[in-house]
Design a protein that fits this description.
The structure is a single chain. By secondary structure, this protein is an alpha+beta fold. It has a domain at 1-32. Helices cover 59% and strands 14% of the residues. The protein contains three helices and two strands; from the N terminus they run αααββ. The chain has helices at residues 2-17, 20-32, 34-45; strands spanning 53-57, 64-68. Strands 1-2 form a two-stranded antiparallel sheet. A hairpin with a 6-residue loop joins β1 (53-57) and β2 (64-68). The longest helix is centred in the first third of the chain and has 16 residues, at 2-17. The two termini are 30 Å apart. The relative contact order is 0.14.
């Protein structure tokens, strides 16, 4: 959500006020949120044969952990 608000929202405002520097800032915000989208993509593409799976944020590394039961 921060990527959409800070990136997309600022990009719309930059186009409306015709500010190139503000638009570059919006692009930077969108690219910075790429890791969030990567985690969402990895969790959507993860397949398991187990009935129950719990997705948790990893406690001390980047990414997430899947507990299967």
């Amino acid at each position: 959500m921060p990527t959409l608000v800070l990136g997309g929202g600022v990009a719309v405002v930059a186009v409306m006020v015709n500010q190139l520097l503000l638009f570059f800032l919006a692009e930077y915000m969108i690219l910075s949120g790429g890791g969030d989208f990567l985690i969402i993509l990895k969790s959507m593409l993860y397949h398991t044969d187990k009935q129950e799976s719990v997705y948790c944020d990893h406690p001390y590394e980047c990414g997430f952990v899947v507990f299967e039961k």
